[in-house]
């Protein structure tokens, strides 16, 4: 049925959300901005600068574009330090086995992530070179819910969007898949929004879905 599967990275292949949270928390604390896990949930799949704009909803001063860039870069420095804690052990057995089984079925596999750190994260997980294509924050102009990141992934794979299945944990990502005319499976936090084609209780549920 499908020829390719495009995976979101954070929240699907791995769980870097706690590192994003810790890094943003540090910046928010420095600026005296209220920030909690609930606000952090709104940052899923959203680009770095857009994430900071959401955090700044609780900032009652004014901030220039230069300052915004400065703090977003500061967050990224903290985040990248935290990512160094990641290793191939952070890749679950289930994800590893499911990816291998999908590949055996002849499906192409790609990453469709908003993150500019996708390459580094894949390296930490021991997945460098594993995917047939990587579309991430470095090759897009518009971030999720715009479909660009997934459409580029399909293009890199030389597949039509309609032949690709997207797997996402974020509302912005599920909306992006829809906007790109792609079927999508929601996992984790993504299951709370009912716009997905499929609901995945487990990552390995993908194996049944691709059987059609
Ligand atoms: C991820 C995260 C977002 C993050 C974004 C940009 O997206 O879910 O919270 O803001 O990447 O990350 P960076 O600052 O590393 O460029 P995805 O699409 O992989 O879930
Ligand atoms: Mg995600």
From TrEMBL:
Q: Which family does it belong to?
A: Belongs to the HAD-like hydrolase superfamily. CbbY/CbbZ/Gph/YieH family.
Q: Which UniProt keywords apply?
A: Carbohydrate metabolism, Isomerase, Magnesium, Metal-binding, Phosphoprotein
Q: Does the keyword Isomerase apply?
A: yes
Which PANTHER family did the record assign? Answer: 6-PHOSPHOGLUCONATE PHOSPHATASE, HEXITOL PHOSPHATASE B
Q: Which organism is it from?
A: Lacrimispora saccharolytica (strain ATCC 35040 / DSM 2544 / NRCC 2533 / WM1) (Clostridium saccharolyticum)
Cofactor(s) it depends on? Mg(2+)
What's its top-level EC category?
Answer: isomerase
| Active-site residues per Swiss-Prot or TrEMBL entry | 8, 10
Tell me what this protein is called: Beta-phosphoglucomutase
